[in-house]
Design a protein that fits this description.
By secondary structure, the chain is an alpha+beta fold. The protein has a single domain (3-141), classed as SecB-like (Bacterial Protein-export protein SecB, Roll). Helix content is 29%, strand content 39%. It has 2 helices and 4 strands, in the order ββββαα. A 4-stranded antiparallel β-sheet has the order 1-4-3-2.
Length: 152
């Protein structure tokens, strides 16, 4: 390979694309003594934004509930623009699904913790996530899903 054909993977920009905090049952919810149940959902998406540039968004949704009451809901869309040049097409999906979220997750974790604290609650510290295992599981589920055969 020539020098200009070397694979390139770099970070152009990291930013919060979306941030929302809801405390629908305030102020009464602050009088509750029980610890809420915490649910965390993760989602990643990517799209081309220019030649060799891909925007990847890691969306983290944290919902805290006490019985049927929502204590708080925090959603962070942590995004980044990544420069990807001379990378084989078959490797692009893995980069978008694994490498990019690995870069974005620490920033999303900090944004979630800060938002929860500013909403008046104890900080939530998200545990590390194995994005590679999630990606491989999704690939396995896609391969084992039955394919529909049209009836003629």
């Amino acid at each position: 390979m020539e020098q200009n054909e070397q694979p390139v993977f770099g970070i152009e920009k990291l930013y919060v694309k979306d941030l929302s905090v809801e405390v629908p049952n305030a102020p009464e919810i602050f009088l509750e003594q029980s610890a809420p149940q915490i649910e965390v959902q993760l989602n990643t998406s990517g799209r081309g934004v220019g030649e060799g540039a891909v925007e990847v968004v890691l969306t983290v949704t944290v919902t805290a509930k006490l019985a049927d009451k929502t204590v708080f809901l925090v959603e962070v869309g942590q995004a980044g623009i990544f420069r990807m040049l001379n990378i084989p097409e078959e490797q692009m999906e893995g980069l978008v699904a694994v490498a990019c979220p690995n870069v974005l997750f620490p920033y999303a974790r900090e944004a979630v913790s800060d938002a929860v604290t500013r909403a008046g609650f104890q900080p939530i510290v998200l545990q590390p996530v194995n994005f590679e295992a999630m990606y491989l599981q999704r690939l396995q589920e896609q391969q084992s899903a039955p394919t529909e055969v049209p009836i003629q």
